[in-house]
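Table S2 (continued). Query chain:
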Amino acid sequence: MKCGTSRGKVRAAIAIVGLIAGIFAGIAYGAGNRPADDEFLPENPEEGSALFTSKLCIRCHSVQGVGGRTGPDLGEVQLGSLSEITAKLWNHFPRMNEAFTIERLVWPTFTNTQTRKLVTFLYYLNFLDKAANAEVGEKLFHEKNCVRCHSVGGRGGTVGPELDSFQERYAIPYITAALWNSGPKMMETMLSEKVQRPAFRERDVVDILAYIRARGFGEEARRRYLAVGNPISGKEIFRKKGCSYCHSVRGNGGKIGPDLARQPLKGSLSYILSELWNHGSNMWPRMKRERIKFPTFKPQEMADLISYLYFLKFRDVVGTASHGADVFARKNCKLCHTPKRPGDETIGPNLAEVGLKSSFDVLAAMWNHAPRIEDRMKEEGIRWPLFEKEEMADLVEYILSLNKER
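Corresponding output:
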């Protein structure tokens, strides 16, 4: 699928290809042996969409209105980090199992690799912008003073270039690259023309683009789309373009700007665009003072970079094994998974012996055995435990530490 922002485009793509497709690079972390961040970055976040369709998730769940109605629309639900998604899935297992029983559906199972792809796709869904409003965009185009310098459909200023070309360039990274590349010059022009520099909220830019598409001079048949951003390539662009001179990621990099892994960049595509623009007025003068060469971006480079920034929050909680041991006991996991005496059999498998090496191994095991786990817990009179994301992160870390110790 190519990057687009309209609901119609998303629906068309889902109908044609069963949501979306691509390739996902393995992501995992083990206790006490942290991998490089690359292991948390997909090459193409969309491949899990094929599993979403083939495993019949789409029968119960929709994405922006396309799919089933039994469960929530996953394009509307805010799905957080890996640990949060794992916790939410676990917490809803009994409810889902009941729905599967009522519908007489077979509980689907996933390999570890398939689990990685699917969960990455679920995380990616919040990156897609929701349907835009051209009428709101027209109002914003005037309120933000864009009309003072730019024209759309022959109406507006002549200080800056006409924006009709964005009627054809059907992807936010096109305008993100244009705004960034022209940012310093635009600031100077605004000062000379005494135009107040606008700030954008998350929905503003996508609505303005909808207005340009509706009123701009262009041909829809000639619309140009971009490939989905590649976060792995985006990390390399982050380095090559010198972003790491000012910004760090989890402590690695410059200290002039904030650590981007600790910033609230977990938002939609247009939200990250807005953040880049809003902070440009601080970044560009500072780069000039520091004599840092101003980097420019091609649209696809910008798409990759933004995808990289988005996926930095996929790994936002790192668990602690010692805390996880407490969670394991407090949530009664030990009743089924710990032998009472050496040599005794356990109700469930001894987790030190099953060879779980990554967080995705743990999640796949949880999912695949959820119906059996629930049945056995009912037999034993054990209440189904619920987890917060921090508790799940600690629990997974503890389970992985058992394999390492063995």
